[in-house]
Every structure is written in C-alpha cells, then in structure tokens.
Amino acid sequence: MDMGIAGRTALVCAASKGLGRGCAEALAAEGVNLVITARTAETLEATAASIRSKYGVNVQAVACDITTPEGHAAALAACPQPDILVNNAGGPPPGDFRNFTHDMWIKALEANMLTPIELIKRTIDGMIDRGFGRIVNITSSSVKAPIDVLGLSNGARSGLTGFVAGVARKVASTGVTINNLLPGTFDTDRIAVTFEAQAKAQNVSIDEVRARRAEALPAGRFGNPDEFGRTCAFLCSVHAGYIIGQNILIDGGAYPGTY
Hints:
By secondary structure, the protein is α/β, with parallel strands linked by helices. It folds into 2 domains: 9-186 and 226-249, NAD(P)-binding Rossmann-like Domain (Rossmann fold, 3-Layer(aba) Sandwich), CATH 3.40.50; 187-222, no CATH class. It has helices at residues 18-29, 41-55, 69-78, 102-130, 151-170, 189-202, 206-216, 225-235, and strands at 9-12, 33-38, 59-63, 84-87, 133-138, 176-183, 247-250. Strands 3-2-1-4-5-6-7 form a 7-stranded parallel sheet, with helices on both faces. Helix 5 (151-170) links the parallel strand 5 (133-138) and strand 6. The two termini are 29 Å apart. Pfam families: adh_short_C2. InterPro entries: NAD(P)-bd_dom_sf, SDR, SDR_fam. It comes from Caballeronia concitans.
C-alpha cells in the first residue's frame, strides 16, 4: 500500500532507538524526510546515518533533551514546519507512589504531558494552514490499564490523553489528525528497566520476570519496534484521515476487556 506521504517531513522525538526509531524507520521507508532527536549524540548520529543509507531520505539529527525548553527550541529550529509530528520521550522511573517527590512528579509531567502539548501547540497551526498534518503521541498501555509500579507514567500520560481527546476533535475538519499509540510490552531498553524493578520487588531473577511476562501474553511474545513503527506510519498516511483522537492499543492481546 502506498501511504501517500513520500516527500513529507516528520519530526520524530527520541528516535535513536526503541519505538521512536521504529517509527522513524517506517516513515523513512515511505519516503518521508526526517528530523530525529535524542539525548546521546553518538547513538543518534549512527541511527541517522543508517536510515539515510537504507532508505535514501534526508535525515537531520538534533542531539537534545526534548523534554526541556532548550530541546524544544533546537528541534523546532531544525524542523519548524513538520507535516508529521511523533511525540515520544522516555518514561519516568518505576517505584512506590509513597516515594515519589514533588520534583519527580514535575519531571514526569514535563516529559510525558507538557512537552508533547508544547510541540503540538507550536506546529499545529502550520499543519492547519497547509491542510494536512499527522500527530502521533507514543504513550503507554498503562493509560488503558494502569501498571502498579508506574504511577508517575500512569498519571502524566493520562493527562496527555485527556488533552488530546478534546483538541483532536477541534481540528478534525482541517485535515489534521491527532492520535495516540499505546505500546504494551515491547522488547526495548525501557522495558528492561521495568523488569529490573519488578524482579527486585518480587525477589526473583530478571530472566524469570521476562519469561513470566512473555508466557502471560496471548501473543506469546513481546512486540518489536518495527511492527510498532509500521502502525505509526499508517496513522500518518493519507488513508488514516478518518481516525481522530483514538488510543490505539498495541499490546499482544494483554488487555482483556471487550471495549
């Protein structure tokens, strides 16, 4: 299927590895030119070089912390008028809510709620003026079914979800869509941190936690970033203009609800 977005420009945040990179690669495969961000310059440059070589698109790497005002400025200076915006940032640490300080809450909100809102605010009017825009926020399956050790993430990402629910419908008639992708258990560095916390809490090995989690999934395995990225690319395509304000759960069947 031709996604109809070749030649478009995308700003993909936190894209040096994991789910962000999966999204960047899938968009590049459709001929989309990229500006990608991440904090570690060396890793980011290596990713950019790999995508350029593999797909033949323009890729600009911006090493920054996208969760800070300085990071917003650097990313938008490189890509002030994206056609596609993929919001992504590393999640806050796991733990017992009793130990979460005010500063930890503020940092979580800045990364996983306020930064996506700021980037949407600063790019959406250009999309509206051009009559086309796709915004995809990578959130978490915890928005649908909270994860006990991820209280900071549960709260911050749910706040973003509520914001998007209103704004997506307000701009739906302009050719701009906003949707959220909710990853479940994907085989990334991030999930390794969560497994480590769970192993410590349960006094078992990390391998045992991994094995239990995989066995508990109806799919019988963890997801991989490539399949996540292809879902993102479809949401960014010309074929997805009637998908508005949705929370697309990609969790291998883990959530047991009917609705």
